[in-house]
Design brief:
With 296 residues, this protein is mainly α. The chain has one domain. The protein is 73% helix and 2% strand. It has nine helices and two strands. The protein has a two-stranded antiparallel ribbon. The chain is globular.
Length: 296
Amino acid sequence: MVRGETNSTKTILTVLSALIIIGALIASIGGLLDMKSTTIAQKTFVSIYGESVGLDGNGLYARDSISVAAQARGQDWVTLLVGIPLLKVGTYLMRKGSLRGKMLQTGVLGYFLYTYASYSYLSMYNPLFLVYVALFGLSLYAFIVAFRSFGPTEVADSLKPRFPRRLLGGYLIGMGVLLLLMWIARIVPALVSGTPPVGLEHYATLVIQASDLAVVVPAAILTGVLILRGSAMGATLGAVLFMKLLTMALALFSMMLVMHASGVALAAAEVVIFTVLLGLGLVASVVMFLSVSSQA
């Protein structure tokens, strides 16, 4: 990549990241502080499947279920306290020419992409709908530009000699398989019995599960296999995926805390799985980050 193209890419990513930060501040603070703009008297809703769904009833997420509103507020906390600061740091380091900075920025952009795609498609319509859509689009194109900025062997060439290939590759494969089994265990029994799956509530479909099964699970397993095989592409995908999975794991943990505080019943198996994934993800992400030479 010639110098002009490098500077152009840095400028594009800086502008897009700045816009994402501004939009995410509006979306996350709005979700956390707005408890009065909308108040609905009807706190329950009967879905087309005949199930009674408890609604949050207040603020931006008034028409969302108690469970989804709690998850959204948990996600807003992580976006505000973790996602935005990490994107600032990653963008700053990227502009300094740091490979670690590029890894961090691209991974966090993946977090914003996943988050606001979910808000755009899952959340009940609210006054910030266009903000969610804008963040979805900005994150998508920023992620594409950021990922394309990596050279074919840039990450692989910067790995330290003792790169723990088996540990990191095994973690990604294991995480992908666990996530696959967890969602299949929720969906298949409902298909067999002809009843709505747990968590569908009054929504049209299982947006999170669809995203995980179509994108996250295959990406994790494929990247894990490529890392085990010593592929340069595996190193690049892993550098990005570990940063993204770390922020998503933190978001899931925050969601569970807010859901518990809101009185939402949590499946014990899912709590255990997500807690284990968070702990292992923290370790694996730090190991991946430190495996890249600080000179890169």
